[in-house]
Each structure stands twice: as structure tokens, then as C-alpha cells.
Amino acid sequence: MSVRPQDTQTAATTDAGIPVDAVYTPERHPVRTPEPPGEPPFTRGVRPLMYRERPWAVRQLAGFGTPEDTNRRLRLLLEHGATAVNTVFDFPTNRGYDSDAPLARADAGQGGVAVDSVEDMVALYAGIPLDEVSVSIVVSHPVAAGVVLAMYLVAAERRGYRPEDLAGTLQNDFMMETVVLTAPSVLEPAFAFRLSTDVVEYCLQHVPRWNAISYTGYNYREAGADAVQEAALVVAHAVATAEEMVRRGHPVDTFASRLTAFFSADNDFFEEIAKYRAARRVYARVFAERLGAREPRSRMLRYHVQTAGSALTAQQPLNNVTRSAYHALAAVLGGAQSLHVSAYDEALSIPSESAALTALHTQHILRHETGVDRTADPLAGSHYVESLTDAVEQRVYELLARIDALGGLVAAVEQGWVHKHLLANAYERQLAIDDGTRTVVGVNRFRSDEPLHIDPFRVPATLEPQEDKLRRLRAGRDGARVRAALDALRDTAASGRNTMPPLLEAVRAGATLGECSEVFRDLHGGWRQPLI
């Protein structure tokens, strides 16, 4: 559990409980010269020239309402300088329910875009050149992730694209299903992990430019993890995937270069930078020494960063512009490959158009006005940053050893170890805010009674148009073909074979997201988290 930092000028620890000296000197904190950028273990970055070689992707998150609503927002962001697409899906879609399902109706279009069928996927990306624009699909729960990817692949197929034309990322994280954002019916961890790995295996064989998984350290962090735990859980999850893929007969160097991560950028500026540097170092060494990876790209930890949503406040929301800008700066100084800056009104609602563009232009200011991208790893050699990097690395290894002792990450989830630590950290953090030992400007210090002048964004009507589309889909499809496809999916899932081929056939036949996901819930749903 993290040590709570003291909120004074003589703060003794980082947010993760790492001791901080008042002054760092060469005598007390000698700096070992890190390897050059682009060389294992990649402490200083994954490319020799970093952003002078390839700028980070400006990948702003968007999603709300119907596919048509979100398509307009995605195209707006691209027109204003976004270089990639990052689509968030609503609560029902992430959890594998159709918009008209009784459990889902109230949430249709909330928190993301509603997608129920391949027809929705066609509308979602209409007019976007899928062979030129990298697409991030923010669906994390394996109960639905493979289904949504199948819909994307079939929608692209209808537009004439081949699988090898498509570049992008799917979250596809079993811990989101079983630990972080649980659904009414949670898949058993081992089965959720298996579905996740099915997608990795299928993309290795058929969609070569696609990152089939993105370990959602960001969401572990939002659920309570500190920086060290976030990095450790990402590496542990990557190890679990790699070991399962090797067990299935795939040498590590055939697939490891397509594994990616999704990190948070939170308030403790220097600890965040050290986290990214240490995570790359640990990842590279673990993949080389434990898994036998020989290719440099197999040992590279490539990741997207989103600035911390949990750090944003509903009080004095314009302060969030400053928070997100500093978070983004930490991500860039730490060497991110891709970045989303959270909008100032996200603690109140889905971002308004104005707030979304302000967040987008925060990235443009960072890239084009500050000069932070002119040299790789500009903080290398700092006694403080190098010391923190070493400290984070050591603590990550300690957590990895504890996870191994439990039998690996899937077993740690099944036993409730991950839940226990995330909940304990979240509780301690909130206590520190409540008793004032942790300052949150506008919440427990420097408060203002001025009225709020932010008009929250209102999600357009979603349920009715989605219900109408579902009625027309079900009336017009070949019912016998759909039933046969879902039966084939059930047989495949029960037999242990890869579920992606029958998912693609079910989607082509007109099966809905909820119908496909229900097959998985029927077989392995109803798991109860070990919360004690």
C-alpha cells in the first residue's frame, strides 16, 4: 500500500511512497549513464531520435450517442489536426449488450458511442480512410472486444479494404472485465483471458498491422493503482499473454511486437516520467531474459497515454486545462508514442465540442510551441529522474515476484489480490483528500463560491434510433443463418478453439453484439469477484 505523501514543501515521498530527498547530488545519487535512445532496454525511448524521427500520434478520444453522432466528432477532430482516431464505446457496448436490452436501455450512448451491429460500424467510420488512419477501438471487456473487432473487420471488408490494410489497436483487457469495470454478469477470469488471447492469435495470423491488445494501465490507475502498481500490472499482463501465446505454439518474436499498453499521466510529474522510463526498462529485460525474445521490437514497450481523468474536478473545471497540460508534458517527456489530452469538462459530462478542441490544441501547443520534442529523453542524467527511475524499477520487480508467487496474473485476479490492492489505494487516496493532507485545488483548498458557468454537453437521443435500427436488422436478416452461426460460435467456445473465425461469420450473418456476447455469458458468466 502506498505511503500517503505529506502536502508540504518538504514532502517526503512520491504518490507511490518512494522517498524523496530534498536535494539530489552526484555524491549521494550517482547517475549511471543510460543506453542511447532506441537501444535495449529502451530506458530513454524506443527510437533513436524519438519525436524528430516520428512525432507522437495525436489521438484524441471521442464517442457518444449514435454512430452517426460520433462520426461527425471524429471527422471534426481529424479536420482540426488529429492524426489518428480514438473511439470510446458506451457502457452497453463495452459490456456486450445491445442498446435495447433491459439492462442497457438507460445507458445507450452514455460514456461512448452505441454499436449494436456491423451496420453501426459502417456508419461509425464512414468517410474515414481506414487504410490511412490508425483507429483505436476502446472496447476493453473480452466478452465484447472480439465481437466489436469482428464488426470492424467486416465493415472494412464491405468498403473494399483487406485485413492487411488496417492499422490500429484494440484494448481487449481481461482485467477490465474482472477487476475494474464489471458488468452485470462477469466472465470467469480464465475464460475472459482466453478470449483476449484468441484475438491476439487471430490478428497475428490475419491482421498483421493491428495491435490486438492494449494493457489498460490507465484504468488500473483510475481504479486505485499507484504508478508502480500500474507499471507492474501492465508488465505482468504482457507476460501472461506471451506465455499463453507460446503455449499455443507461437514463438515470442512472432507476436510480441504487436503487444501495446495504455498508461495514465497523473499529478506527480517526475514520478510519472520515471514510471514510463522504468516500465520500458523492466519490460525489455523481462521479455529478453524470461521469455527469450531476441528481436529488439519484441522487447519494446510501446504505449498510448491518456491524461488522468480521475485528477479532473467538477469544481473550478477550467483548472483542468492546466492539469491536463502538465500531464501531457509528463507523457511526452517520458516518451509516449500516442497521446490523448482529457478535456476540462470531463468531470461534468462528455466533452463539448469547444472543450474537445481545446484539449486537441493543447497537444498542438505542446508539439509546435514548446520545443519539448527537439531532443530525445531531455531529462536523462537528472539525478532525481534517474534515481526515481531506478526506484520504480526495483519496486516493479518486487511486485512481479509477488504476482508470480500467486501463480501469475490470472490467478492473482481469481484470488482477489489485485482487487484488494486497488481498493486499498483508492480508499487511502480519498481519505487523504477528505482530511486535507492531499491538496486538490478547488475541492479542499482554494475553493470558490463563484457559480459554475460550464454548460454540460447533452448526449443526443440515442435509444430510439438504435432500437429502430435493431428492429429493421432483425426483420431483414436470415434468421436460420444467424442461429446456425451462433450455434457454431457456441460449439467453438465450448471446445477451446479460437473464437474469432465464428465471430466473423456471425457478424456477417447479421448477429448483434448482444447475441454474440450472450453465448460467452451462457458458457462462462456469473463469476463473483472475491471482495472481502
From TrEMBL:
Residues 14-524 form the Methylmalonyl-CoA mutase alpha/beta chain catalytic domain. Keywords: Isomerase. Signal peptide: none annotated. Gene3D superfamilies: Methylmalonyl-CoA mutase (3.20.20.240). It comes from the Bacteria. InterPro entries: Cbl-dep_enz_cat, MeMalonylCoA_mutase_a/b_cat, MMCoA_mutase_a_cat. Pfam families: MM_CoA_mutase. Residues 27-46 are annotated as: Disordered. NCBIfam families: acid_CoA_mut_N (TIGR00641). Heterodimer of an alpha and a beta chain. This is Methylmalonyl-CoA mutase family protein.
